[in-house]
Amino acid sequence: MRKILITGALGQIGSELAEEMRKIYGSDNVVASSRRIKEGHEKLIESGPFEVINVNDPETLASVVDKHKINTIVNLAAILSAVGEKEPQQCWNINMNGLYNILEIAKEKNCMVYTPSSIAAFGPATPKDNTPQDTIQRPTTMYGVTKVAGELLCDYYYKRFGVDTRGVRFPGLISYKTLPGGGTTDYAVHIYYEALRNKKYSSFIQKGTYMDMMYMPDALRAIINLIEAAPDRLKHRNAFNVSAMSFEPEMLAESIRKFMPEFKLDYDVDPIRQEIADSWPNSLDDSYAREEWDWNPEYDLDSMTKDMLEKLRIKLNIQG
Ligand code: AKB
């Protein structure tokens, strides 16, 4: 039976993954953890076991793994791209030293480790369109450096020590429950909030900038389906390209206008996040994920927009 520990469980992915995994595996079998308790997450904290864990504290990590007899660690504690450029040392410390601590504990205590990589693991020298699974990477952000190094470290722990490591390269993730914190793709979440609140949005990402994106229900399936994939089918293990849609801000605005014709988009470009976005691919080739563990996203741009607007309208209590 799986006994799962999720680090970074109060973040954008973790808060939804913990809820979903508790439904599938049983509340007592999913331990949510975070560096600190954050307001607004009382329901999650009370719906199953919860621990305060800093991934840079290996003793606490090891004692929680022992206490709950954990055999699967989903490591979501991370600093994202934009904050990573403001605080590169902290980004390295959490993303790399934290991952190293988790892999060491997994090796000692025989746990599977799932760590997401990102489209940020690619750089300006990477082929931009339909980016292959195995290609030149050389990212130019600290976040990207930690992601590509993390992919290699996970491959190494599998090959050298037999740790069952797995992961995908996530695109920008769009969700309505918990806001993303400090990424370059965050504009694609903020735009829905501002569409409903003010009927307009100023994008910090320039017109014409394509990036891969995915709706959160598909991202949760990408995590759970890969964790459950038959090991003998996996030729890759870590860092599978996964994609659901690729768009630029005008296409997103056009999709919102199908449901809110009065919506207006303009631009107030942030040069730092624009430079990061320009260094990433426009779209990924995810055929290996489709082949090796049947990856198949359910949401496209319009079905995601419809659902986001419906759910956010309720969350923000906006009529009409
Ligand atoms: C970010 O923008 O930093 C993240 C990512 C693509 O990994 N959403």
Number of domains: 2
Cα shape: globular
Mind telling me which CATH architecture of the largest domain this is? 3-Layer(aba) Sandwich
Per CATH, the class of the largest domain reads: Alpha Beta
Q: How do the SSEs run, as a string of H and E?
A: EHEHEHEHHEEHEEEHEEHEEHEHHH
Helices, by number, come to 12
Q: Strand order across the biggest sheet?
A: 3-2-1-4-5-7
Written description of the protein model:
The chain is α/β, with parallel strands linked by helices and 320 residues long. The protein has two domains: 4-170 and 231-241, NAD(P)-binding Rossmann-like Domain (Rossmann fold); 172-213 and 243-316, 3-Layer(aba) Sandwich (Rossmann fold). The chain has twelve helices and 14 strands. Helix 2 (42-46) links the parallel strand 2 (30-34) and strand 3 (50-52). It is globular and about 55 Å long. It starts with a strand and ends in a 5-residue tail after the last helix. The model has no long low-confidence stretch (mean pLDDT 97). The site of 2-amino-3-ketobutyric acid (AKB) has 12 residues, from loops.
Q: What keyword list fits this structure?
A:
320 residues, alpha/beta, Rossmann fold, 6-stranded parallel sheet, 3-stranded parallel sheet, 12 helices, globular, binds 2-amino-3-ketobutyric acid
